[in-house]
């Protein structure tokens, strides 16, 4: 019985092969795209899921309810972790966490590795499998070091690594460490990445900050006892906060901080580590968090594409139903039941869907490398064999088959036998359904076109907005691998001073944008000035900083080696000067540090965007305070041949530091990396819009072919009566053009609401213009008209005698 159903289905599919091929192509493209999209979403949402106790691990953060709004930060003081663990029995494990670069040496081998400072509980909390060593005591010794398998192989080769002594250069001090454990290489699916683990007690300035509750230097994670309700933990922290953070609370009160509904102006809170990959609102979380807008947008666009493909399937199946009405009538006359007809049509649907699924997965395999390159995705074909992924593919197949196949099959089996045998299948309902589905289809396509145009405008605006400094001719070089920043800067100055293409060299604590090292730093200092608290970003710089970056000096002078007192002098920006609020800011003395004398303001610079354009310009203080390290060297080159200048600087670096990788990048590249999520989003919208329009046009082409076939006699009569080719094309096209116009009107408010909300995340943003909507509508109409015209022109040019004879 099933064999007969399949043979009959194959015969019917072959008979209508043109429409079925269009159906198959549209559905296959949609399945390929959706598979790639949903694999990416699955990858993003399963970050860190290999940690067995993930749901019981939380990150601590602080909230200051300032007068201008709540300030959230994940940086905490060093004494916080031991104090919480000592005072709250519900805390099972806690660990501090901070990163740094370090040189590790064994014999003649030296490696530049990513060092992670943690507490002893770290490996008890997180599931990083040990190949050798015991996780319960592997970090019990202060001079123990745990290394990854890749580091062990690079350093020791085939020699046993356990219990070997290595030398680590931490904070410019070389110390011996014993290899106490070897970990499996860290999964790329982990937001915590490192090559070496050492105890937090080796963190720079640890001894000086161990009792400093006002100095926040790192992040901290906490694991509770089994069965404990974490929600009750924060409410129990009020006495702890009042005890240890009293000075911070007093400063906030003086500064006009507003109490929350519980009466607190400063409090501790916790965030699930399971959401760490998306915790862009905290700052200072492990890894490089991704804005949740990115995967959510992927889900929405994937669903849009799938819906559009299903609409195509339904419309084409319904349209073909008119040509098969007599077949249904004959089958019913010969005794076929509704159930048998339903099974017959559904088997046809399953066969088309199954073929589309196979072709779609083959397309997915062929396009996966290009997809990964465009969207910087880490998905792989092996993910298709994951049980969850396989289950998802099966559900997707069943869903598409059910949605796309049920209504057309049901509609065809409900034809009245007598009516269809007389050739009367006219009904307004299928036309209404077809038009409704086409409106939905083009509403989604127009929505994606509008989103594409607006995201492109915003990214173009961000890239071209003047930032107040030179970003095109300045090279940023990270100082990593345990190198001493000041020494590296001095050597590079001497090395490059005779290079004709080099204009100036300087150094800084913070980078501009995000460099090739992937890290970003910030340091905010708060101090009392008069009757209010002043908060400012601190940027350690060296001589020629303003000259190298072409930052405009409004008043005063730049730091100068001829002035011995510049180590206690500062240069501030306009926003910082306004915050101080005094009449004669230049030359005034400011009590920025409690432990030293007041610092003098020797210069005021024009405001420049030292952070991303998501944020307004904040108060900034430039200092030469040596408590802040030189982490980046900036080299300004003369315009002309930037490639040759880059190569020359790289060669100079490699001569000085042959064992440390050169990670230099132009500052304009760094600033563009700040908007990686936005560029991804733009790419998603562009790709989604193109695919949605292509699939919609495939369906529209098939429907126009079907309608022209149904109206062959009408077209012939109109031509005989004198209608022109243009008039017939316009007649056949206008109904669809009206539907596209209606779809655009529906898409407008949705697109405006979505994109207006997205733009609010930028301090500097474009204004949505009316012409964006007009352009999107024009594009949709033009594409629809061109698609329909292929068949309309062919029908209008046909000989009317042949058309009437065929009828």
From TrEMBL:
Residues 299-414, 689-796 form the ABC3 transporter permease C-terminal domain. It is found in: Cell membrane. Pfam families: FtsX, MacB_PCD. The keyword Ribonucleoprotein does not apply. The chain crosses the membrane at residues 21-43, 298-322, 343-368, 388-415, 436-456, 684-709, 721-748, 768-790. GO terms for cellular component: plasma membrane. Keywords: Cell membrane, Membrane, Transmembrane, Transmembrane helix. Its main location: membrane. It is a multi-pass membrane protein. Residues 21-238, 500-644 form the MacB-like periplasmic core domain. PANTHER family: ABC-TYPE MACROLIDE FAMILY EXPORT SYSTEM PERMEASE COMPONENT 2 (PTHR30572:SF18), MEMBRANE COMPONENT OF TRANSPORTER-RELATED (PTHR30572). This is ABC transporter permease. It comes from Mucilaginibacter galii.
């Amino acid at each position: 019985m099933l064999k007969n159903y399949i043979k009959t289905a194959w015969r019917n599919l072959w008979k209508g092969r043109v429409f079925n091929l269009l159906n198959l192509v549209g559905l296959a493209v949609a399945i390929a795209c959706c598979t790639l999209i949903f694999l990416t979403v699955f990858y993003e949402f399963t970050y860190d899921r290999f940690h067995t106790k993930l749901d019981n691990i939380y990150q601590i953060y602080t909230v200051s309810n300032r007068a201008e709004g709540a300030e959230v930060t994940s940086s905490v003081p060093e004494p916080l972790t031991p104090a919480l663990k000592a005072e709250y029995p519900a805390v099972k494990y806690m660990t501090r966490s901070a990163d740094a670069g370090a040189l590790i040496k064994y014999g003649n081998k030296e490696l530049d590795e990513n060092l992670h400072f943690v507490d002893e509980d770290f490996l008890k909390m997180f599931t990083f499998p040990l190949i050798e060593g015991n996780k319960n005591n592997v970090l019990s010794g202060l001079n123990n070091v745990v290394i990854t398998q890749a580091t062990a192989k690079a350093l020791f080769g085939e020699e046993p690594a356990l219990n070997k002594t290595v030398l680590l250069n931490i904070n410019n001090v070389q110390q011996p460490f014993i290899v106490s454990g070897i970990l499996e290489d860290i999964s790329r699916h982990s937001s915590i990445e490192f090559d070496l683990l050492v105890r937090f007690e080796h963190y720079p300035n640890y001894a000086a900050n161990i009792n400093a509750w006002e100095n926040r230097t790192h992040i901290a994670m906490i694991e509770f006892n089994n069965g404990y309700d974490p929600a009750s933990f924060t409410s129990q922290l009020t006495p702890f906060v009042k005890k240890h953070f009293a000075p911070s609370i007093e400063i906030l009160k003086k500064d006009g901080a507003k109490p929350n509904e519980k009466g607190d102006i400063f409090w501790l809170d916790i965030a699930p580590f399971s959401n760490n990959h998306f915790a862009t609102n905290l700052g200072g979380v492990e890894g490089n968090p991704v804005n949740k807008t990115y995967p959510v947008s992927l889900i929405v666009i994937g669903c849009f594409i799938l819906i559009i493909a299903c609409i195509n399937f339904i419309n084409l199946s319904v349209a073909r139903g008119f040509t098969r009405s007599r077949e249904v009538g004959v089958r019913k006359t010969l005794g076929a039941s509704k159930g048998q007809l339903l099974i017959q049509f559904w088997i046809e649907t399953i066969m088309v869907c199954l073929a589309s699924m196979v072709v779609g997965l083959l397309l997915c395999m062929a396009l996966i490398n290009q997809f990964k390159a465009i969207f910087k995705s880490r998905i792989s074909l092996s993910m298709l064999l994951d049980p969850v992924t396989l289950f998802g593919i099966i559900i997707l197949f069943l869903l598409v088959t059910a949605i796309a196949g049920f209504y057309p099959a049901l509609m065809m089996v409900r034809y009245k036998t007598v009516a269809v045998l007389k050739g009367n299948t006219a009904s307004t309902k299928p036309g209404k359904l077809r038009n409704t589905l086409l409106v939905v289809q083009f509403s989604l396509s127009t929505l994606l076109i509008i989103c594409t145009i607006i995201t492109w405008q915003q990214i173009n605006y961000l890239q071209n907005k003047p930032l107040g400094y030179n970003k095109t001719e300045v090279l940023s070089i990270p100082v990593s691998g345990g190198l001493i920043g000041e020494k590296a800067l001095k050597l590079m100055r001497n090395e490059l001073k005779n290079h004709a293409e080099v204009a100036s060299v300087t150094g800084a604590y913070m980078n501009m944008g995000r460099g090739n090292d992937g890290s970003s730093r910030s340091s905010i200092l708060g101090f009392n000035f008069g009757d209010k608290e002043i908060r400012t970003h601190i940027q350690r710089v060296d001589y020629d900083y303003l000259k190298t970056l072409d930052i405009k000096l409004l008043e005063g002078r730049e730091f100068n080696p001829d002035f011995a007192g510049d180590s206690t002098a500062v240069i501030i920006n306009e926003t910082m000067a306004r915050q101080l609020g005094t009449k004669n800011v230049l030359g005034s003395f400011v009590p920025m540090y409690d432990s030293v004398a007041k610092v003098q303001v020797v210069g005021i610079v024009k405001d420049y965007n030292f952070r991303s354009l998501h944020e307004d310009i904040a108060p900034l203080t430039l200092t030469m305070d040596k408590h802040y390290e030189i982490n980046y060297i900036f080299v300004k080159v003369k315009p002309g041949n930037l490639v040759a200048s880059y190569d020359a600087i790289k060669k100079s670096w490699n001569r000085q530091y042959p064992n440390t990788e050169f990670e230099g990048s132009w500052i304009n590249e760094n600033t563009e990396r700040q908007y990686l999520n936005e560029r991804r989003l733009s790419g998603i919208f562009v790709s989604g819009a193109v695919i949605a329009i292509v699939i919609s046009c495939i369906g529209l082409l098939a429907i126009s072919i079907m309608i022209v076939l149904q109206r062959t006699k009408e077209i012939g009569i109109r031509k005989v009566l004198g209608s022109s080719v243009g008039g017939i094309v316009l007649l056949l096209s206008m109904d669809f053009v009206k539907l596209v116009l209606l779809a655009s009107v529906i898409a407008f408010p949705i697109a405006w609401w979505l994109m207006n909300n997205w733009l609010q995340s930028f301090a500097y943003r474009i204004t949505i213009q009316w012409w964006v909507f007009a352009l999107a509508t024009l594009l949709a109409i033009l594409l629809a008209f061109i698609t329909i015209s292929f068949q309309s022109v062919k029908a209008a040019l046909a000989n009317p005698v042949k058309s009437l004879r065929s009828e």
